Amino acid sequence: MLLDFVHSPTDVRALPEGQLPQLCQELREFLVKSLSETGGHLASNLGAVELTVAIHRVFDTERDRLVFDVGHQCYVHKILTGRRERFDTLRQLDGLSGFPKPRESVHDAFIAGHASNSVSVALGMARARTLQGEDYSVLALIGDGALTGGLAYEGLNNAGASGEPLVVILNDNGMSINPNVGAMPSHLARLRSRPGYYHFKKWYRSLFGSRPMKNPLYRFNHGVKTFLKRNLFPGSTFFEDMGFTYLGPVDGHDLPRLCDALRWARELDSPVVVHVNTVKGKGCPFAERNPDMYHGVGPFDRSTGLLKKTGEESFSSVFGKALSDFAREDGRVCAVTAAMADGTGLSGFAKTFPDRFFDVGIAEGHGVSMAAGMAAQGLLPVFAVYSTFLQRGYDMLIHDVALENLHVVLGVDRAGLVGADGETHHGCFDPLFLPALPGYTVLCPASFAELRHMLRQALFELTGPVAVRYPRGGEGAWRGDASKEPLVRLREGRDVTLLTYGVLVNQTLAAAALLEERGVRAEVLKLNRIAPLDGAVLAGFFGETEILLVLEDCFGAGCVGQRITAILAGEGRAPRKLILKNLGRTFAPEGGVPQLEERFGLDAAAVAAAAEEAFHER
After folding, report:
1. Residues with catalytic annotation?
2. 86 pLDDT exceeds 60?
3. Starting at the edge strand that comes first in sequence, how are the strands of the sheet with 245-251 ordered?
4. pTM higher than 0.85, yes or no?
């Protein structure tokens, strides 16, 4: 197999051109075989095979800087940079990350887990190169919907005006820019991507000296060309108006043309956009037919594409069904999502209530602000968004929602540890920043029944901004009755108090059972609401025990445990011994949630051990 002899980009550059189609075919076969066992981002990587090979044929990523946007397109890059043998550990604890990670390889220039930042980062690198007097190329590979994010346009606007040599590769797989239609644009696209076109363009400009726009004949010809381009290539003038030279569209599966375009982009020594058309899921029939389904996928049968583990009821699916039920009751209920209709469980809502469903694309800040506008005019908007992506709308949560105390409901999906996507995707910040915002109520269901109850409460009983945060996946063993009380006691005990919220109640109850076997009577308290926290309510529950252990799957600085302790101190009920079990100041890596809970001491055994040690020390 040809791929067995490719261990680095040097090997890719050494291959005869005639062997490159075989390399691409083997890369696709390897991706399907490997991801069928581990799961991962399949369709986007299948579509980027030729493009990634072309990049490594033309550029040297050991020195040249390749910035991905978004990073889940990096699998082929990882294979070609010496990490193929580790693909059986993809997205597993202590294994290969599913995103670029500089700590893994010198070929990974920058971490890329969220979208739309690549041009900004690449421009920063280009400016550093110029100021330091160094000589290397900088590339931003953007696509898969990242151009729906406003930050991408901020970066493009500044990069085009900067004059810094920089190559922006737009991987257009139908999720960012609509393709040109018709025979003439296709013919001219082929013409514009040939080397002869650029030779002629250089020669023609040289005929008019260093300042061709001073010549009336050149200005006339330039005006005619611009008029034709604006009508035949609206995308090209869009980028050129910002200061870029536009190359393309180029067939993203034609390696020779891709290599030619990238070489010319490098030689132009200025800001350049290379527009590449690719097919998401290319070469795998079931991924080509359903690219969204195979965007991020679990282990599957590689011959049929059928998932090895069928989908079970999850917090996301329960949320979507409940929201649809409430929308039937009240015509003001609307759903907003940011390119995550399937992931947030809203596909059914979108089909049932198409006029009240709004997908804003990868533009979370815009999603928050739009929901604020809807709420200001009397609607009941629910913005369903992954916790990690809600971070991108932080400013809008303050200025567009909190300041006017608008009744916007946030369905904060993937709260807490999420597993395989790792440090860029864990939802470990929202318990810190949402309760800090004035007027916000933050509810934490621990079961499907509580989620339905709390979503109804958020929509129809509470006022102001409300967040309902819930984890990825299904519910645990605890499936108790929903309660409107902000704090409930699930278990009596006089030796230690264990406090938590959300699905960690399962680990907490299990820890209490272990403690009972060891002669330690543990009280278990469950917060249904982590904001606002009422001092009088908290004081009414504390004081019987001297030891308080608070269990959370978020970072330590500003966590709920710290805030509760401060409130209790003010009420004269501060515990003599406080144990905060959380992530501390460390980002959690890839891995299964149970594995990560064990590593960070958030599992029942670790909680019981910490509480028992504190009890005996007392």
Report:
1. 280, 364, 392
2. yes
3. 65-69, 138-143, 166-172, 271-277, 245-251
4. yes
